[in-house]
Protein: UDP-2,3-diacylglucosamine pyrophosphatase LpxH
Amino acid sequence: MMHYRAIWISDIHLGTTGCQANYLLDFLKHNDADTFYLVGDIIDGWRLKQTFYWPQSHNDVVQKLLRKARKGTEVIYVPGNHDESARQFFGMSFGDVKVVEEIIHTTLDGRKLWVTHGDLFDGVMQYAKWLAYVGDSLYTFILYINRYFNLIRIKMGLQYWSLSQYLKHQVKNAVSYIADFEHIMAREARLRNCDGVVCGHIHKAEIREIDGLLYCNDGDWVESLSALVETQEGELKLIYWTHIKGDPEEAPEVAVQSPIEMLTNEAAI
Structure:
């Protein structure tokens, strides 16, 4: 078990067929931290409104995170656009999970990192949300193909590889959009007198300096299968979990609950 000062994960998209829940469960089994940041799009409310999809592995992810919170890990949830309904609960806690609009993380060496999902600074989300819905449908279709593509790769003894991420990064406009987003986030961090930013939203894991500011994106759990961590020595680095290192923990024989039921029950404890 590796133990870090902090772990950031986002864009899990529980409730969709594209979510790589088994890989995430294995990551959570082998990694812990003083503070866990859930940086938005944890549960995909957009997709669940259309078709309810909630297998046991998605249930297990939520239970695993709640269990970490019960055992003393500080778990902080910053909702994104796909789980925007959770934004009505800013300032509240559910099962020891704190829901916040944004937060500042201070690294071991004293740097202040602004933590936010990032959708509020995405021009498409703010001014053409209908386009975001259309893009989400196309993206879901590509992830559907990606799922079966990787089942074949696994049977061949090959590791996970994201067809959808490869296609996205071949499109010039998509690359330009990502670059613009990264610079906007760095600028917003400067306006907040921070030394850098940690965000998600665009599903592209990255650590780099932009105009003297540190830009960190923790990636996602549908394409890159990545997390951002701060080690006990204060180093920030990305971890890619494209191999399952051990069998996921066996789930108890219980009925599968919806995410709302689980959070409600935890809040009542």
The domain at 2-268 is CATH 3.60.21.10 (Purple Acid Phosphatase; chain A, domain 2). The mean pLDDT is 84.
